[in-house]
Design brief:
It is built from no helices and eight strands. It is mainly β. It folds into two domains: about 5-55; about 60-115, TSP-1 type 1 repeat (Single Sheet), CATH 2.20.100. The chain has a two-stranded antiparallel sheet. Strands 2-4 form a two-stranded antiparallel sheet. It is rod-shaped.
């Protein structure tokens, strides 16, 4: 009868994400030609395949995002004729996911101003009167 070593697939790497390094194991059996398991002594003249090897665990990136964008510009003030603001407006900024998931908020908003802030009051400014000038087709006294 012929004998040989039968190797099973490697088990998953037992490394943790903290260390990154671990050991991977597999089973190796001595078998006859008909694949029946026999005592390992029957295969002692054959080099036994390794049953353990070091391994490195690639741990997933939890989350990597781009830097925040610049804040969007605030829109012009929205004042009503009675001098009050119609509503508060907001500005936003964004970021995008580079890798991973569960990255938290990808957009932030903030008010551009407080709604209680008064609208600016506009008044006309006046200067001194200029000297009277006659139209070119008008004569004095008429």
């Amino acid at each position: 009868h012929g004998f040989s070593w039968l190797t099973l697939p490697w088990q998953p790497c037992n490394a943790s994400c903290d260390s990154g390094e671990g050991v991977q194991l597999r089973e190796v059996w001595c078998v006859q030609d008909n694949q029946d398991m026999v005592n390992e002594s029957k295969c002692e003249l054959l080099t036994k395949p390794v049953t353990a090897r070091s391994c490195v665990q690639d741990c997933p990136v939890q989350c990597e995002v781009s830097p925040w964008s610049e804040w969007s510009p605030c829109p012009p003030l929205n004042c009503q004729p009675n001098g009050t603001r119609a509503a508060a407006t907001t500005q936003s900024r964004y970021r995008v996911v580079v890798e991973g998931s569960d990255c938290g908020p990808l957009e932030e908003s903030r008010e551009c101003f407080t709604p209680s802030e008064p609208c600016p009051h506009h008044v006309w400014g006046t200067g001194d009167w200029s000297q009277c000038q006659l139209a070119h087709d008008v004569r004095c006294g008429h």
